[in-house]
């Protein structure tokens, strides 16, 4: 059944609120952002915002949720292309760095996990660690990792190193940009991760 124009308008308003909230949270942080600021930017009343999101905390949680679901489609696309293991992880990291650089929702989601409400936020980092672990599991199956590698421990440290690399690259003045920094990060790591040649 086709959506009515009223349903389409509601969906468009909700998306606009979410986008504007992400911009405000990214720029100001959670505590310095108000529902009134978001409403004013969109020419809405606070009541209109609350119609779609019952509280600022729920709006923040939805921004984090929106930022945490982007990786599965990217993985499926790589699976379809036959890219797996360490190659998939390197490509996924570059894509993640590009999106963190260019996508305000992802940046806001990351910031909110540090300074947002203490309850009710999903944990996007747990999802990212899981994605890294899945790529590493495939790398083990393909013989791409040194024997005896602790995949769980490596997944945690790779995720932490990636997140730190992209955040420092985003904040540091001048080139290179976060995508280049993440690529350099992998160039340095891969020789240590791969098994020695036979």
From TrEMBL:
The protein, known as: AcrR family transcriptional regulator
SUPFAM superfamilies: Homeodomain-like (SSF46689), Tetracyclin repressor-like, C-terminal domain (SSF48498)
Gene3D superfamilies per record: Tetracycline Repressor, domain 2
Keyword vocabulary terms for this entry: DNA-binding, Transcription, Transcription regulation
DNA-binding span(s): 34-53
Transmembrane segments: none
Domain HTH tetR-type: 11-71
PROSITE patterns (alphabetical): HTH_TETR_1, HTH_TETR_2
Species: Isoptericola halotolerans
Pfam family, one: TetR_C_45
Domain of life: Bacteria
């Amino acid at each position: 059944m086709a959506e009515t124009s009223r349903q389409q308008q509601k969906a468009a308003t909700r998306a606009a609120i979410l986008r504007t909230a992400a911009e405000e949270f990214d720029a100001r942080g959670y505590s310095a952002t108000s529902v009134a600021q978001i409403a004013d930017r969109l020419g809405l009343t606070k009541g209109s915002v609350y119609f779609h999101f019952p509280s600022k905390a729920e709006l923040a949680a939805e921004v984090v949720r929106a930022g945490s679901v982007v990786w599965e489609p990217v993985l499926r696309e790589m699976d379809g292309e036959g890219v797996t293991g360490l190659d998939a992880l390197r490509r996924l990291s570059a894509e993640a760095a590009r999106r963190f650089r260019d996508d305000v929702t992802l940046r806001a989601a990351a910031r909110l996990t540090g300074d947002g409400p203490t309850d009710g936020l999903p944990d996007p980092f747990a999802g990212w660690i899981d994605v890294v672990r899945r790529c590493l599991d495939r790398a083990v199956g393909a013989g791409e990792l040194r024997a005896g590698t602790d995949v769980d421990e490596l997944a945690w440290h790779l995720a932490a190193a990636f997140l730190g690399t992209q955040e420092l690259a985003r904040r540091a003045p001048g080139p290179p940009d976060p995508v280049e920094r993440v690529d350099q990060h992998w160039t340095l790591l891969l020789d240590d991760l791969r098994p020695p040649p036979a």
